[in-house]
Amino acid sequence: MQFPVDYTRLSPQQRRVVRTAYIKQQGGKCAFCGEQLFNEPHVDVTSKPLNMDLFPKEFLKWPIHLDHDHYTDMTRGAVHAYCNGVLFQYFGG
To answer: What's residue 1's pLDDT?
Structure first.
């Protein structure tokens, strides 16, 4: 699979496939904080509070997200859900 991919052109099933491919490519680590995706995000990330009013109700329900640039819509990698929130809230997407 060739990265990046246009996030807006992917079905939910395709997003799952792309997320899984990123997880494999990244050695199971979060593209943002570097911790294993099946563990908690790095403490430097979790020390940043999230304003949950900015996110959909079930934003943190799924622990691993497919991150994408909100300006170009291109994927960037697999990240913890919390890291995805920090990227959006503190760095603008």
So the answer is: 79
